[in-house]
Amino acid sequence: MKALVLEEYSRLVYKDVPDPKVAPDEVLIEVRACGICGSDVHGMDGSTGRRRPPVIMGHEASGVIAEVGGDVLGFGAGERVAFDSTVYCGRCYFCRRGQVNLCDSRSVLGVSCDEYRMDGAFAEYVVVPERVVCRLPEEVSFEHAAMVEPLSVAVHSVERMPRSLSDTAVVVGTGMIGLLMIQALRAAGCGTIIGVDLEPSRLELAGKVGADVCLKADECDVAEVVGGHTEGRGADVAFDAVGLASTAETAVRCLRKGGAVALVGNLSPEARLPLQVVVAREISLYGSCASRGEFGICLDMIARGAIRLDELISATAPLSEGAAWFERLYQREPRGAMERGERDGRRWVRLEWTGGDCDGGEQGAGSVYGPGAGAGRGGPRDHEPESGAAGGIEARDRGNGPAGAGAGAGCWRLREHSADGRGGAWGVREDRRAGE
Ligand SMILES: [Zn+2]
Ligand SMILES: [Zn+2]
Questions:
Q1: Taking a C-beta distance cutoff of 8 angstroms, is the pair 31, 61 a contact?
Q2: Minimum-distance ligand to the CA of 42?
């Protein structure tokens, strides 16, 4: 079969490889769509230690079952499916409790590290155990089904949180995962949803997919603005989809007393905590890793149109062009040069514009926070947190936002229904396009 192989660090080759063999408990899937994850783009240079060549990357995929192993009972050839990237053992203490994302011998498709190597879905075929396979509703396209995996990461984090109808929620980092969180929070009945980022084009997209208020973190005091939307209390729940000291702190500081924060991104392995705030205000911290069992919910929400995915797909292309697209994303070329590619009906890659990771629980949204912000491509995450550059792959036209025009404005409102008159006090701009 043809596959896009990471032959050595930063070198992808589209070539013939032996067809994968199907074990008795496995399913052979003919891949129809596979997303490029941020963890693939910044993992391919060796900086994360989780893409050791040779390996076929790709863990956000969908396709049609071509063959099933002898012990497979639940699926048959010809069925349209997606699959979880987390392969769990099913036998350990945690798997038996249903916490398969915490499995003692968890491995991730398309990842190659010290402990294991598991080829992924940038290929004509991929094999996965039956237990991670999920049937697709008719209404869900292969392209959308390939986004179930990152969506499940977002949905899991929302499911982890204590929440009530009409809660005010803050999402720090509006990369892929953050944008999906916003939509999941909307579907979960949240009231005011506030997106926080540094990149104007991402904030604009956050507004399009459901954020009521979008804040540019370097131009306003996020906690103060959130307070203004909550009678001074602070938000009920907050999500850090980035995982840097500054973003975790922002998420914690904008909460009301007794509020809860979900820590999902972890671009930096460590972050300082405003301990006194957490203790004195009784803040609850929730780590959230990958997903467990949310695939069905996600597919249902996509089928019902509760989650908008088209806006999050920036281009499609045949797998044979995959190496060039990876290179482009790695170099963070502006999307101005990109067009939606022709499909050959079978093999293509999706090019997302954020660095939302979902490999091994290392989610990170694509925004750039901290020192070095905005400079160059996403830097190494696991080993050099001090580099500060987030792992975002940036494929959007960066000249698209109101950045320059917005200097000093602080933040801007994207939806009229959040206009309550209070915003003006913090310099909210009514017309985010002014001066573009
Ligand atoms: Zn297990
Ligand atoms: Zn991923």
A1: yes
A2: 2
